[in-house]
Amino acid sequence: MKTIQAISVTLLTLVLAGTTMSAAHNVSGTITCDGQGVAGIAVSDGYEVVQTDAGGHYAMTSAKKNGYVFYTLPGGYEPMLADGFNPQFWAPLYSRDVNVNEVHEFTLRRVDNDRHTVIFGADTHLARRSSDRAYFKKGLIACLNDEVTRADGGAIYSVLLGDLTWDVFWTQNNYNLSDFMADMKHFNYPMTMWPVIGNHDHDPSIPAGDNTDEEAVEAWRDIVCPNYYSFNLGKVHYVVLDDIVYLNIAYDGETYSEGVAGSRNYRGAITDEQIQWLRKDLALVGHSTPLVVCLHIPAWSINANFNYSARLDNSYTLCNLLNQYDQVHIVSGHNHCNYTAEPSAFPHVTEHNITAVCGSLWQSAIMTDHHICQDGSPAGYLRWSVNGTSLQWVFQPIHEGDSQMRLYDMNTVRDFYLNNSTMRDILNEYPSRVNYGNIEDNVVMVNVYAFSPGWQVTISEGDSILPCQRVYTEDPFHTLAYDVPRYATAGYYSTYYTTTNSTHLFKAKAATATKPVTVRVVDNFGNIHIQRISRPHGYNIDMEGKEITLLPGDVNSDGEVNIADANALINILLGAASQPCSSLLADANADGELNIADVNMIIDLILKI
To answer: What backbone torsions phi and psi does residue 365 show, to the nearest 5 degrees?
Structure first.
């Protein structure tokens, strides 16, 4: 009898032990490639982070709060794709009951992506209005197809930095996150898309309350993907964060459209849960690994003095965590403008805030068929070229070729402000606007769209280099692209779309009204961008300047650096040169002087080639 009782107790203990083990590991599975388990892959529910074992197996104890499980893509692999663009790196949980055990399997494919391209775009704001989907298709989608061609079979990916949709129109125009994803399938989105949630991607029907933020992201999590996650491409670690704390407070006396419960307001911040998850995620990443953090709202703002201040409630907490890495880039959207921030407190952190894909919320496209943002930047994106741990980037306009700047003869801008009747009416109606009718004689200005600290901007009149300064003021072209035609049609314009001050305008005063003006911009990577205009230069909606991009030392602008360039420079120094723009092209080291140091630099470049 005692033996039978002992056996019964032992069996009961085993059963209970099995039940306990099952509850402890309520989410598990295997990650494989070509039928073999892949070891060392981080897997998370947004709280816990575990790694796959030698057989590719993972198991975790999940509180199931977020309702999903995802893995961090390892370098050298790609996820399976749904509909040709949608990465299957996550799975919704079957149940929120922590006592229910569930298994989720994932499959990878092997790829060499140490060299890869990433397209960073922001703020598509699709809402089934203003022909936005048609503009999107012939704009960004067409450009992405060109990027695939440019990549020539190389690994290429994209990150969309939030506000994929426009929350107020989820019900009003019957266009929500599901419709966005369906459109991407319909448009044959041509590469992997890693999405970031924006404030306009939160569910506006959730009323203000204790769990508003948590409930407002449920639609995104159900339809798109987790609202925060990470992945590796080659040797680079990418992190996506949700930096919107959604409030949606309804204010007394205000009415809201159908499907909208409140004002759709929010705080810019990263929740404590995300910060704790990020610590666990980064614990598996070496400090020499380049880190790219993708946000919607920027972590840093820039002011009229070109200084930086924290934009998020906890920007310092985030950057203190990131700054331990040798190379950190934050990429963000939200502002519909371009600027680069290098906060002095965090020497390893650089933020790139990117102009909007939709320009001025598609409005300048409707008015003039020019997709321009309020700071004068074209609608566009950043193209990042990654080779191992080396990262390079360039701004790519969507509808303006490869142009990196727009140059203004302010004499003709002044004439327009003084003599155009619509412009005069605008200045009377909106007296806070910059009045370029008052600008002094012979000023030239240039908008360098993606200007970053450390770039060199040189303005010359003929062969004379002019003193120039960076100024915080309105870009004149956006006034032509939106303000003037809108006011002419309706007698007013929306201040939501109107021209704002730009942080990347440069100003110089020329000696004459007629000599040609040339601008040379040298970027982070030594690429030289040159634009030249004859004067007087027209100020109109189709204005353009001749622009070329050269390598340092390409004095004769033939696309190569060779002995002919050294000879051309020597001729310039001897006073025997006759080619236009020669002084700017010949200043190979971009120090503002022409001397033997430039000849030596060209010779060094030739020897390296």
So the answer is: -65, -40
Compute CA distances 57 → 2, 71, 110, whole Å.
Answer: 41, 12, 18
User: What DSSP line would sit under 390-439, residue for residue?
Assistant: EEEEEEEESSSTT--EEEEEHHHHHHHHHH-HHHHHHHHH-TTS--GGGP
Confidence of residue 592 (pLDDT cuts 50, 70, 90): low
User: Where on the phi/psi map is residue 125: left (φ > 0), alpha (ψ -120 to 50), or beta?
Assistant: left
**Residue 573, C-beta contacts closer than 8 angstroms, at least 6 positions apart:** 594, 595, 596, 599
Report how far residue 533's alpha carbon sits from residue 42's, in angstroms, rounded to the nearest whole number: 54
- In the prediction, which pLDDT does 502 show? 97
162 neighbors 196 (Cβ within 8 angstroms): yes
Please state, in angstroms and rounded to a whole number, the distance separating the CA atoms of residues 280 and 284.
7
Regarding beta strands 501-509 and 468-474, do their DSSP bridges make them parallel or antiparallel, or are they unpaired?
antiparallel
Phi, psi of 318 (to 5 degrees): -60, -50
Q: Is 165 in contact with 180 (CB distance < 8 Å)?
A: yes
Residue 545 is predicted with a pLDDT of 67
Rounded to whole angstroms, the Cα distance separating 441 from 600 reads: 40
**Cα–Cα distance measured from residue 158 to residue 108, given in angstroms and rounded to the nearest whole number:** 18
Give residue 602's region: left, alpha or beta (phi > 0; psi -120 to 50).
alpha
> pTM for the full model?
0.90
Residue 133 pLDDT > 60: yes
Angstrom distance (rounded) from CA 341 to CA 298: 10
Task: Give the residue with greater pLDDT, 507 vs 601.
Answer: 507
Whether 582 has a pLDDT exceeding 90, the answer reads no
> In angstroms, what is the C-alpha Rg of the chain?
28
What is the separation of C-alpha 193 from the centre of its chain, rounded to a whole number of angstroms? 13
Distance in angstroms (rounded) separating the CA atoms of residues 141 and 144: 5
Collapse the DSSP code of 340 into the 3-class scheme (helix H, G, I; strand E, B; otherwise coil) and give the result. Answer: strand
Q: Residue length, the chain?
A: 609
Neighbouring CB atoms inside 10 A of 449's CB total 25
Q: Is the pLDDT of residue 74 over 60?
A: yes
pLDDT of res. 543: 87
Domains, the chain, ordered by start: 2-69+89-108 (2.60.40.1120), 112-397 (3.60.21.10), 405-550 (no CATH), 552-609 (1.10.1330.10)
- Contact 357/124 with Cβ under 8 angstroms? yes
CA neighbours closer than 13 Å in the CB half-sphere of residue 239: 26
Per the prediction, the chain carries an average pLDDT of 92
Q: Pairing between strand 528-533 and 308-310? A: unpaired
- Beta-carbon contacts of 9 under 8 Å, excluding residues fewer than 6 positions away, are none
How much is the pLDDT for 8? 40
Using alpha carbons only, give the angle 378, 435, 395 rounded to the nearest 5 degrees: 15
Q: What is the pLDDT of residues 409-458, one digit of tens each?
A: 999 999 999 999 999 999 999 999 999 999 999 999 999 999 999 999 99
Q: What are 254-277's pLDDT values in tens digits?
A: 999 999 999 999 999 999 999 999
- Alpha-carbon span 600 to 22, nearest angstrom: 71
Report which residue type is found at 334.
Answer: H
Task: Answer yes or no: are the C-beta atoms of 468 and 505 closer than 8 Å.
Answer: no
Say how far apart CA 372 and CA 477 lie, in whole Å. 8
Quick: pLDDT tens for 213-254: 999 999 999 999 999 999 999 999 999 999 999 999 999 999
